[in-house]
Q: What sequence folds into this?
């Protein structure tokens, strides 16, 4: 006795993660019939299996950010990478959708992508080969600060013949990718310059001026180096060895000296300014004002340039004085002879023959051994044999005694 069976299996195509599928069919006789060679348990049953290779694309998407943190006003980007890890090339157009969150302004789109408001759409033509991938770099500019954990941004891929990414409910995790990025306030940097003597004070040939450049950082840490360029007028000479390690100089010897200092990227927010100090000497026979101007800058497209609200220029009129000292009175009996116990009065005269008034002039007079200080005019301060005057003013074409 023969039994002939014809079976048909119908199944809708599916997207498989594996590269092959085994389909097993079995025929089992009813218990009222017997067979010559029963199977396990005396049951008449025949089994056959067939293995079929699955050929289908399998898409994945990975989204990354250009930095672990973004900064307000500074360009950033996301990279969308779509790869085909299946067993066949894509059979239809694949579509990437990236919903850029509010607070990020999309920039110019790369080839294959377009933006409508905050929604970015990129397309990948059919035929993405097995193992191949495509990258899209989406530029954005942050407009508001968002503290950690930051702004979440999710991109999805669908189509391409990958039915799981297209119609899966839910779609596999490989069809979406999210990256979350904090956004920092843009750094603010305030630049200023001070001097000792202070700007406006008259200086003399041979006198030393100490300059200090200061940078105050606010908002967030700097992301780029700040370059300070300080130009010193030709009537000043840089004091050798006075520059800090982060500064250098060029020029001089009859031409302006340019001092360049660098504040490295990553300078933290601080209530205390970052400072750079150095000294110059006013040249012998120098005329005109001793002037300096400092300018701060950063590379294009990054941190804003430093502001200069507190003043970034100094100027010092250059005066010319002459000193004379004379014994003007003595209380002893013999003129010109220092007698024990007598009082001697010396007059020091500061003459300024130039057309520029001298301000902030300082003078020290040292007495000889055997003399004892009694008093001084014009607020002179005595310490042992030394008497010092500070902040003296000598009028233009005039004198002070």
A:
């Amino acid at each position: 006795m023969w039994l002939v069976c014809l079976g048909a299996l119908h199944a809708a195509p599916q997207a498989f993660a594996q590269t092959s599928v085994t389909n097993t069919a079995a025929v089992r006789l009813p218990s009222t019939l017997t067979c010559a060679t029963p199977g396990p348990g005396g049951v008449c049953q025949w089994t056959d299996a067939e293995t079929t290779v699955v050929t289908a694309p399998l898409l994945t998407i990975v989204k990354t950010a250009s930095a672990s943190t973004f900064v307000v006003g500074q360009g950033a980007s996301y990279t969308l990478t779509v790869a085909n890890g299946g067993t066949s090339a894509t059979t239809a157009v694949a579509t990437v959708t990236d919903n850029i969150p509010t607070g990020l302004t999309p920039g110019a789109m790369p080839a294959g992508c377009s933006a409508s408001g905050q929604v970015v759409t990129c397309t990948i033509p059919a035929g993405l080969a097995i193992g191949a991938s495509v990258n899209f770099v989406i530029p954005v500019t942050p407009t508001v600060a968002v503290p950690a954990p930051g702004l979440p941004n999710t991109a999805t891929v669908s189509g391409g013949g990958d039915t799981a990414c297209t119609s899966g409910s839910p779609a596999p995790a490989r069809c979406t990718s999210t990256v979350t990025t904090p956004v920092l306030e843009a750094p603010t940097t305030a630049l200023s310059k001070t001097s000792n003597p202070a700007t406006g004070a008259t200086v003399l040939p041979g006198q030393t001026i100490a300059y200090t450049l200061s940078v105050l950082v606010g908002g967030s840490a700097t992301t780029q180096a700040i370059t300070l360029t300080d130009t010193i007028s030709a009537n000043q000479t840089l004091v050798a060895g006075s520059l800090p390690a982060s500064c250098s100089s060029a020029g001089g010897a009859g031409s302006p000296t340019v001092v360049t200092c660098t504040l490295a990227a990553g300078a933290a927010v601080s209530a205390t300014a970052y400072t750079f100090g150095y000294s110059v000497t006013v040249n012998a026979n120098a005329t005109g004002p001793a002037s300096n101007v400092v300018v701060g800058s950063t590379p294009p497209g990054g941190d804003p340039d430093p502001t200069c609200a507190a003043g970034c220029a100094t100027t010092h009129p250059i005066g010319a004085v002459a000193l004379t000292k004379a014994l003007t009175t003595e209380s002893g009996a013999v003129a010109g002879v220092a007698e024990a116990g007598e009082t001697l009065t010396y007059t020091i005269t500061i003459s300024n023959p130039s057309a520029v008034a001298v301000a902030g002039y300082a003078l020290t007079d040292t007495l000889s051994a055997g003399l004892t200080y009694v008093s001084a005019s014009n607020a002179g301060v005595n310490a042992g044999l030394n008497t010092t005057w500070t902040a003296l003013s000598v009028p233009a074409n005039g004198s002070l005694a």
